[in-house]
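Morning!

This is the sequence you dropped in the shared folder:
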Amino acid sequence: MSNLDQAAVKREFAAHIGIDWADQKHFWTMRTADGKTQRGELDNTPEAVQVWAAELEQRFGGRPVAVALEQARGAVIAMLCKYAHLVLFPIHPNTLANYRKAFRPSGAKSDPRDADLALELLVSHADKLRRLEPDTVETRKLQFLTEERRRLVNQQTSETQRLIGWLKQVFPQILPWFEDPACAMVGELLLRWPTLPALQKATPKTLRTFFHRQNCRSAERIEERIAQIRQAVAATHDAALLETGILCIQNSVHLLEQMREGIAEFDHQIAETYRQHPDRAIMESFPGAGPALEPRLIAAVGSRRSGSNQPKA
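The structure's back. Tokens below.
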């Protein structure tokens, strides 16, 4: 961007603002078109943001105000982007961190000073920043859904590892008996018979009925498991370990059940949103993508595919 272009950008806005956001309170620094600087604080509430945005609109007669902040998605962006007179410029965290080091080699963070730095970046390096131009509702919904599903799957993996860790200590036989210790069948078994001695008290008829109800139809596999249960030896008799382990195992079982239901609902919402997405035909034309990958491709590349994807903070 030439100096002439940058000057035109500056004239477009009645003021430029840098915000350093935090969970409780935000610091902002504003420079108006006449070069005057003002600083202030802003509570992290929708009500406070609304009052602040209204004051800016009234002060500058509805003219656009440029706002730079170290976030491309999140609570602050959600609260600010609904005001048409606020034009948002997300700054990548690494960009602000490197800019901060140019002035403070230690890289020490200071909330008011970071608001100043965000403002300086906005005013002096407009060509390095990109306006936040939200994608379509359908695309952003797919982005939110796929990202949150991935987080939930990661949580499920962590909770499964926690479950396995406790099973190894108090009920290790579960691991070779079942391929997936986090599946619904194992969860039901552990809630009903949380220890090997408790499981061994169940009659073969009761166990056969249980496995049938869990859609285990292989008579040979059922009989093999029943024989293994009868021959198994408890790993420990430590009451302290057993009582703690039972509590932790059953807690993990309940959490994993909720996560399975949550992931299934995410999958349903993703499929339904993708079914109605205008770009579905484009993604379906890609050979080998498939229904699982296609909506994630839209989420990854967006609907505005001219290089306008925003940096993630």
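Headline: The radius of gyration is 28 Å.

More detail when I'm at my desk.
O.
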